[in-house]
Design goal:
By secondary structure, the protein is of the alpha+beta class. The chain contains five helices and four strands, in the order H-E-H-H-E-H-E-E-H. A four-stranded mixed β-sheet has the order 1-2-3-4, with helices on one face. The radius of gyration is 19 Å and the shape is elongated.
Length: 162
């Protein structure tokens, strides 16, 4: 939420401020190779990652007041966990959810449709380069980093990278 948003109607009534712009709409879906991996990763985990990306991007754009009135359509095309997901642990009982680590991250594509109708492509990818670079202890640590960096890039106007 924007700070002091509750004062906007009062400021408008007094003629002190222009109406606030509409907040951006963020839509997230899956595509690419990830469609075929949903069963392996687990539908629950994939759904949580879709919502997580949506909320991280929406929060950062709101925090910075960026892309007001825009529609952001993102597609997670690849998603790699740092640790086994619940479904992977169920499918392979000998797999240790504590000791097993891997290079994780995410690839995200899509577009931003600005308030004036411009369509701008979005491409972002972030993975740990080696196992030595894997930091953190959560299943989706590197994917979370990808979401955060993408959100900062979107808020800063850097839409197409890597």
């Amino acid at each position: 939420m924007r700070r002091f948003a509750f004062l906007a109607p009062l400021a408008l009534a007094m003629g002190l401020a222009a109406p606030a712009a509409a907040q951006p709409t963020v839509n997230v879906t899956i595509g690419g190779d990830l469609v075929e991996q949903v069963e392996t990763l687990g539908q629950r985990d994939v759904d949580l990652q879709l919502e997580r990306l949506r909320s991280v991007v929406a929060r950062e754009l709101d925090r910075r007041g960026a892309l007001d009135g825009a529609q952001i359509n993102l597609v997670i095309t690849d998603l790699k966990p740092n640790r086994p997901t619940f479904q992977q642990a169920v499918d392979r009982p000998g797999l240790s959810i504590i000791d097993s680590i891997s290079i994780g991250g995410a690839t995200i594509e899509g577009e931003v449709i600005t308030a004036d109708g411009q369509r701008l492509p979005v491409r972002f990818s972030r993975y740990s380069p080696t196992l030595a670079d894997v930091q953190g202890f959560t299943t989706w640590q590197d994917a979370e980093r990808a979401y955060s960096r993408l959100a900062v890039n979107l808020a800063s106007g850097r839409l197409v990278t890597r």
